[in-house]
Input
Amino acid sequence: MSRIPQRFADLSARGRKALIPFITAGDPDPELTVPLMHALVAGGADILELGVPFSDPMADGPTIQRSSERALKHGVSLRRVLAMVTEFRKTDTQTPVVLMGYANPIEAMGLTVFAQDAEAAGVDGVLTVDYPPEEAEAYSATLAQHGLDAIFLLSPTTPDARVEAVARHASGFIYYVSLKGVTGAATLDMAEVAQRMADIRAHARLPVGVGFGIRDPETARAVAEVADAVVIGSRIVQEVEASPRESAADNVRNFVASVRAALDA
Output
């Protein structure tokens, strides 16, 4: 059973919004991933989003592309990412973990084998960028059989018919991409974000998280006024990229703590 619905229920009961930071597994090297995951939790993360390195990350901007390249140089595969989650679970059995990536590694492993192994590792949800909801019935059903939430993306240009398709197949939460572009690009139009939140909620009852373009505590707090969760990726990956290895975990924890404080203020 996924930990994600209970986490959102607990947060809602306390009047809090979810903070979902992203890192790429294996960046800057495989040995630092689990310490970074724990640092994110120590900083106040509610759900972790762990990127599966991929050679052609079409939805990601230069920052996350570089993080995938660094991880792939260390030979980080989907199977190795699952091993990292297994290691994380030895000391953290409560924090939900979502894998974010692309279909190719899952297809190469085989969807059923992947779902079985992800469940065994302690994964809670899977966001596969290039599985369209219109063709995801078997994908979602297989994940559900193994207690995994299927998380889908919506964007500013998503038509109502696709929102309805996502609402049928999604579980855990819905991820709203707040920009017409790749990760780390541009700035947010908060009026547009607020309007899209209302549109999405007209079709779906799941919590909605907003990501792409959130780079500082102030923007995170503004997004939290209208969304159920705030997703931060490129800004945290930049922190990892710019930090000496020995201080990366502390720097990431401190940045996440600053966002958490803004959300709770």
